[in-house]
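The material for today's practical consists of a large collection of protein records. A record pairs a protein's sequence with a compact description of its fold. Instead of coordinates, the fold is spelled out as a row of discrete tokens. We will come back to this pairing of sequence and fold again and again. Here is such a record, shown just as it appears in the course material.
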Amino acid sequence: MQAKTLVAFGAALITMGAPGAAQAADQIAVSAPATPLGNVPAQVPVTTTVTADTQGITFTFAERRAANCAPTVAEMEGRPGATQADTGVATPGETVQHTSNFSAGNPGHYRLCAYVIDSVDAKTAPPRALAEGDAAVGEADRGDDVTVEVPPATAGGPLTYTLRGHSTDRAKLRVFTEPGGTDCAPTVAQQAMRPLARTGQITIHASGAFTVTSQTSAPKAGPYRMCAYLEHDVGPSDTTTYAVATTTGVITDLDRDRDGVRNDVDRCPDTKGEQPVGCPTFTFLGKTTLKITPRTRAIFLDAVEPRGCKVTVTTRLLGTRLTTSGRLPRPLILRISKSLAQRLARKASTKVTLNVTAVCGRSTIKATRRITLKR
């Protein structure tokens, strides 16, 4: 059989056989030239070279600032930032080389990932061979860059963030959180002047690649923007910003009504109430025995809590439905017709159940009030 060869171009390559193989039966390499500074967006040529033992197909991808290649073609296709750059054929016993372009919309380093698999049905299986490479787009060598990542956070707790990037000199990293922020100012000094911007920890890191995880206090509940700045720590006179990163998030409020009961178990999460259910209770005033006369044909319900809520009162009196509504703490009055009052006058007393419903924001509270009507 013809001897296997490996052809390499441009960037340094990493080539490996299928996992677990004692010696790679297939070999693959991938490379791309560096594009000049400022030449972005760009169509970047990617060259894939494969020497195969049996028939197969190749897939080549590019992903900006990816730390590694996915273990399978299917997983690589599933990455939102990955772009398929090339598809080719692996011919047994031959070294095949093909070049195609991928579109790079932003400067930075792109991870190149090339796979050899048996067929399109084998995308979820480990590849027969996998190669990794690097393409510098818009920069001849890696310069200063920073990215910021923030997981979900809750009000009153810590806000954890991770900074990743590269600095050509000793780096000074600063982070700002701004509730409702729409953008990041171009420099640290300008961002610090914003009234709602709060600075986090200033981290010093040696030159080169870095990954820094730190914490600051979470802003108030709602949307926020985080801005990360990379400066060079070469003295107080240097205020040059070399890279800016931004991300947005939403701070979740676990107890919106501040009653000590978490939203997920609070039956009235938007109305301050009492533990353990988190709903307010009615505070009724006045007598539970009322005298009905031809001149006082009304049932009065006095309550002061829950204050400000819209309350509806309904009852059925001698087969007649009565209803009224209003807002506490004003008294609610159920009017009784003259004919109904005359019927009540024939009885020494009548017991009535008042059904009370309060709507407080998005919360609904219900209660009953028992009263006795006398002639």
